[in-house]
Structure formats: C-alpha cells, structure tokens
Amino acid sequence: MPAETHIDRGPLDRQGVFELIRDQLADILEADPSTITEGSSFTEDLDADSLALIELVEALEEELGERTVGFRIDDEDLEDLRTVRDAVDYVVAKLEAG
User: Fold this and answer.
1) Alpha carbon of 33 to those of 6, 38, 42, 77: distances in Å?
2) What pLDDT sits at residue 9?
3) Structural domain of 12
4) Would you call 74 a catalytic residue per the annotation?
5) pLDDT < 70: residue spans in the chain
6) In CA terms, which of 42, 69, 80, 82 is 20 to 30 Å from 50?
7) Is residue 48 a contact partner of residue 23, using CB atoms and an 8 Å limit?
C-alpha cells in the first residue's frame, strides 16, 4: 500500500485503536479476532508471551509511526500493560499527547 494512503487515514479514535491492537494480536497469536476483547489478559486469556508482546509493540510502532511522527512505546511502560484495555488506554493517551 502506498505510504500516502496510510497517512491520509487520519487520526484513530478509541475504537480504531482497539481494532488495530486486536487485529495485530490476532495475526501474531494466530487467533480469531472475535475472541480478543478489551478485557482480555495478554498472558492469562491469550497465552501471549513476552516475544508476542514485543512483536505487538513493533507492529504498533510501525503502523502508528506513519500516523504520528515518533510514536514509540517505552520499554519500561510495557510491563504495566497487562490487558488489551491497558494497551488501548496507553496508545490513546500517547496519541492525544503526541
């Protein structure tokens, strides 16, 4: 997909952030996206290990870096992200601040 169509997609709302995270997780974990909710725990519900979470961070940084210059998820913040909701809240806050 050409970069200009990526950039023209505009800012994401909370639902858009959730869908992005859900779809990326489903791809990484080879799971059905409909089984991933905001209340899903990465480790307990989704069996996501630290490698899967690192892949998620990299995918989000790549996708959101095209929308928000310099978007990064800090390594020290990663340990606080235990559920999909935590990740959505974190990304939404970073996008609003960015």
Assistant:
1) 22, 11, 14, 25
2) 55
3) 3-97
4) no
5) 1-10
6) 69
7) no
Domain holding 57: CATH number?
Answer: 1.10.1200.10
Q: Which amino acid is at 20?
A: L
Asked whether the whole model's pTM tops 0.70, one would answer yes
What is d(CA 15, CA 56) in angstroms, rounded to the nearest whole number? 17
pLDDT of residue 10: 64
pLDDT score at 42: 96
- Counting the structural domains of the chain, the total is 1
Report which of 66, 63, 55 is spatially closest to residue 27, judged by C-alpha positions: 55
Measured CA to CA, the distance from residue 36 to residue 19 in angstroms comes to 10
Choose the catalytic residue: 27, 47, 49, 77: 49
